[in-house]
Amino acid sequence: MFFRNLTLFRFSPAVAEDLSRLDEALGEHRLRPCGPLELFTKGFVPPIGRGEEAALTHAVKHCTWVSVGGEDKLLPAAVVNDELYRRVQKIAEEEGRKVGGRERKRMKEDLLNELLPRAFVRSSRMSAYVDRQHGWLVLDTSSRKSAENALTQMREALGSFPAVPLAPEEGPRVLMTDWLANGTLPAGLTLGDEVELRDPGSNTGAIARCRRQDLESEEIKEHLRNGKQVFQLGLVFDDRISFVLGEDLVLRKLKLLDVVTDELADSAPDAAAELDARFALFTLELERLLGKLEEWFGLPRPKDA
């Protein structure tokens, strides 16, 4: 269950207290199957286990794991438009008349109602957890839109959930550029083997993406001397977690290294117990990393009103 990407939000201590009712609140917003004429449904699914009896939250100490699920009907616009075109052409040939805009719109609505019940359904889920002690909402996605959609689902379930995007006091792009150019990385942080450098002067400026690259090489230094800045940087924290940090403070390609995963016991009695152990280990490791991100970039926790 280890997350691969992290989009982060913060919330205040008062909001953390309100999250004690999370399990009860989510119960009324459980994912239901798509109806015959619905394009999609959203709701919460059990993070561990399946079925109506499975809990919608899973807590280990001060961290609570939730999972936002969805069902989407697969009905490509090209399929609908092709079938609509054939029907319009048939009317023109058999009745000798053109189909007007209003009639075409009605025909398209009828066609959707006809095709939707037979469309395939694609299921999806996104894991997330809340750290009530430190005020973090952590979502397993690098997409801001997907993260906002999941946050909307939580707000609808709770009635209110004022989690806010990160507001760094230190500019991530400037700070990461300094780390790479001058080797001034904080203690415990080392360079990985991936970087994205851009000319910040314009949206059409030159971009250099390097992977499996020595980031201390002369090639990288030349890009920096030419004025490029770091937009994404591969990093390793305490030789335990590797990730690519973006200037948007999204962590991508997150991976717990072998020294961490080797700490997992091999004697879990079942799959649920193994997931529980993995979640406990994962949140413990992230607690240390997120604390350092807060320190490095100045990421204040919102205060209570």
Automatic annotation (TrEMBL):
GO terms for molecular function: double-stranded DNA binding. It comes from the Bacteria. It is found in: Cytoplasm, Nucleoid. The keyword Cytoplasm applies. PANTHER family: RECOMBINATION-ASSOCIATED PROTEIN RDGC. May be involved in recombination. NCBIfam families: PRK00321.1-5 (NF001464). This is Recombination-associated protein RdgC. It comes from Frateuria terrea. The gene is rdgC.
